[in-house]
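RECORD TYPE: inverse folding
INPUT: structure tokens
STRUCTURE:
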């Protein structure tokens, strides 16, 4: 099994201006487009509305350039948006809250938490801590995605994908998320105990109808 993984002794990645120019602002190399992220934000907001859960606070953990912020705020206009980001450069530029999801704490919980393309930048220990922290922070819906071993092998465009990451099997993430969440599919997870009703064919977990 081929795995690209930084050593635990490797210094943390520097997410500076050059990094974001390479992977987000250069159209020849950009891993995502503004249009794609606009649609993703609309999709997340629409699912939150469909679930009929009042969303007062949104936590975008690892928000980067904040490419989903406008569409999330349009779709959920009454919700407070909080961007959490490890990059000192982006926090200075956009005013995000600086911190790592592995140990960041808040006096609030959030009805909607987004963790998109973040945890592959953490080693196993910190990634596991971050996933436990998601369970503390998310009181309702979680939208979660990370580059997996299966993605790297069969889906990702390797010419554009950052390979200086920890690539783990999808099952590694699912096992940890399933301790506190029910998988609804398409990246959505519902916090166990949240007042959200899912029909049998709307959830990956056949035993869970009301979670």
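DESIGNED SEQUENCE:
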């Amino acid at each position: 099994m081929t795995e690209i993984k930084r050593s635990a002794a490797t210094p943390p990645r520097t997410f500076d201006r050059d990094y974001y120019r390479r992977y987000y602002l250069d159209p020849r190399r950009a891993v995502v487009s503004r249009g794609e992220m606009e649609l993703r934000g609309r999709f997340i907001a629409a699912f939150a509305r469909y679930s009929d859960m009042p969303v007062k606070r949104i936590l975008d953990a690892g928000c980067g350039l904040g490419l989903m912020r406008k569409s999330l705020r349009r779709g959920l206009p009454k919700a407070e948006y909080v961007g959490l980001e490890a990059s000192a450069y982006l926090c200075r530029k956009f005013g995000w809250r600086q911190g790592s999801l592995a140990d960041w704490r808040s006096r609030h919980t959030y009805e909607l938490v987004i963790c998109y393309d973040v945890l592959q930048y953490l080693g196993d220990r910190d990634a596991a801590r971050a996933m436990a922290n998601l369970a503390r922070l998310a009181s309702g819906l979680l939208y979660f995605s990370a580059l997996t071993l299966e993605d790297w092998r069969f889906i990702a465009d390797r010419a554009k994908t950052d390979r200086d990451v920890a690539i783990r099997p999808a099952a590694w993430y699912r096992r940890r998320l399933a301790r506190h969440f029910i998988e609804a599919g398409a990246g959505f997870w519902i916090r166990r105990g949240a007042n959200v009703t899912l029909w049998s064919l709307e959830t990956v977990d056949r035993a869970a109808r009301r979670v």
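NOTES: The helical segments are 17-25, 34-50, 69-75, 88-94, 124-137, 149-154, 170-177.
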